[in-house]
Amino acid sequence: MATDIVGRRRGTGFAMVWAVLLVLAGLAMIALPLEAGLGIAIVFSSLIVAAGVLHLIFAVVAGSFGGYLWRTLIGILYMVSGIYFLMHPVRALASFTIVLGVVFMIEGVLQIIAFFGIRALPGAGWMLFDGIVTVLLAILILAHWPSSSDWALATIVGINLLISGTTRFMYLMAHRRAPSATV
Predict the structure, then answer these.
(1) Can you give the pLDDT at residue 60?
(2) CA distance to 11, 87, 135, per residue, from 98 (Å)
(3) Which of 7, 63, 161, 173 gets the highest tally of CB atoms within 10 A of its CB?
(4) pLDDT per residue as tens digits for the range 84-109
């Protein structure tokens, strides 16, 4: 029984460190939203460039001239836009923020519409609530764009990291305290 608890603690140690790092990263992003947003924009832009490179690599094995041409053009488009965003991270952040606002608006409207299809089910009100909050967040982002670029992306990601890290940490603490099952 004692070895089971020691094993459980060892097994959750790295996961607890990861949870604490998520919390710290979330707090840093909330505290420094512009800097964190620019970092996110640079990472996304680098991923766009990498996707362009992969399109060019896989264009060679497309199987037909049309496939080759299509993948090559897409690869070039990705690379040019990714490099442009890397050279202009503030514009990238503004672009990604407006996309986030539009996605939130569409998601919120779709959730509200979906609510009307399931409104008789228990708990359906939570979908309506989620849809309304998502639409309000979209309005907040879009109505204040481009100045919302200074805070929106990093704050939302930061809150997500903070909540994810906290819930993981609390789960792992409960897991460590749980009595071991006997065989």
Answers:
(1) 87
(2) 42, 19, 14
(3) 161
(4) 999 999 999 999 999 999 999 999 99
| Residue in the structure block whose two tokens are 């497309």 | 62
Structure letter (DSSP) for residue 91? H
Q: Which of 74, 81, 137 is nearest to 105 (CA)?
A: 137
- Residue indicated by tokens 């990604």: 96
Residues 6+ apart with CB under 8 A from 65: none
Concatenated DSSP letters of 41-52: HHHHHHHHHHHH
Count of Cβ atoms closer than 10 Å to residue 138 Cβ? 20
Report the alpha-carbon distance of residue 15 to residue 22 in Å, rounded: 10
Q: Which pLDDT does position 171 carry in this prediction?
A: 83
Q: For residues 98 and 144, give the distance between their C-alpha atoms in angstroms, rounded to a whole number.
A: 10
Helix (H) or strand (E) holding 21: helix 2-31
Q: In whole angstroms, how large is the CA radius of gyration of the chain?
A: 22
Tell me the backbone φ, ψ of residue 63, rounded to 5 degrees. 95, -25
Q: What's the pTM? A: 0.73
pLDDT band at 183 (very low <50, low <70, confident <90, very high): very low
Mean pLDDT of 154-180: 84
